[in-house]
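[Q] Does anyone have a clean structure-token version of this?
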Amino acid sequence: MFIGLLMASTLMTVSPPAPRLASVSPQIITHGARTHKWVVLSFDACETRKPAGYDAKIIDILTRTHTPATLFLGGHWMETHPAQARMLAANPLFEIGDHSYLHPHMTKISTAQMDDDLRKTQAVHQNLTGRQARLFRPPYGEYDASVIQEAARFGMKSVTWEVVTGDPDKHVTAPNIVRTVLARTKPGSIVIMHVNGRGWHTAEALPAVIAGLKKKGYSFARLSETLE
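[A] Here you go.
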């Protein structure tokens, strides 16, 4: 089965957090179902205390080509980019998940700190979009049983990836990204890229990624659609 079960001062004033979603079984998802030739393009928008940006070209390409995607937005990033967060959440092509508040190493902080981070991120998400996330991407893809269980307590399935583009590295060129994605993608693969201005050549590569995957017979889906 493609889901592994594990046993086991801000820039805006937020209102009290909305009621927490019902908890889910602790899960780590690395790919969708292998039953269809589909792929999940995922994009992270994370921000530490150092400012991050927003790559509108990526969203324009996805919208123009009618390509579904799953976006993981950080709490602090949403606070500094409220208009973009609302716009992304309102676009029916996109599914939105949480990506922590300040992008900490979750395995190196306490459960209380994790709780505070997830609670704060969900409050920002709820206030800006009117919804609560059901997906969580741990920063750096780092997780252990405590991280997965804490996310599950907040009603979120944890998600990493299968295909790493390496787009935060300035030396990874657009052709590199295209070759990597086309060579490593399998049915159900989750591909990770960045939409916070740190995917240096992502917008340049994206049209060829989409066209190349289509030529290989792939379709695109939001992550939840692939979880059978």
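[Q] Thanks! Anything notable?
[A] Helices lie at 56-64, 75-80, 82-90, 111-129, 145-153, 174-184, 202-215.
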